[in-house]
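Can't paste images in this forum, so I'm doing it all in text. The chain is below; anyone willing to post the predicted structure tokens underneath?
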Amino acid sequence: MKQFWNERYAEHEFAYGKEPNQFLKAHLHLLPKGKVLFVAEGEGRNAVFAAKNGFQVYAFDYSDSGRKKAKDLASENNVVIDYEVSDVLQLSYEKNSFDAIVFIFVHFPSDIRKKAHEKLLALLKINGKILFEAFSKEQINYTSGGPKDSAMLFSEDEVKNEFTCVNFDFLKTEIIDLNEGLHHQGEGSVIRFIGTKK
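Text version of the structure:
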């Protein structure tokens, strides 16, 4: 998978565009101003948007080419983001060190997903906020992007089971129109939530 993402992000065009995800754009104001971690951030469009809005931004991905494009995008926008290249299970951040964590279309392999989510939640302070959007199980019926392995997609029950220490402000499945670069185009099914770590 690392090779897949390195090749995708090595292309000249931004795979998912330079504009922020619409769900993030609409709800960023709900996150506390402070340290925010962007999970599997790829080419940096969402991290850069948050940095432009006054957040102290940290991000990681295991793609070197994704990091390079993210840092270039940050420079282009005159902001700074702290971006690590790391596997999720090898992250070196301290526990309880982030005020918010953002998951935008983060689909870990099914064999590590629950453990990855536990690791990430441990990095979030008590009362810290989570903003999450990912493809639902129904996305398998759409051609607008996302994994073709249904085990990597989400149901609402799976979200509840994997984010057990979270109080959900809302959690819903929606059909949306995607217009994000080359690889997220057309109608799709997503699960979205905003939550607080208890």
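The chain has one domain: 2-197. The mean pLDDT is 97.
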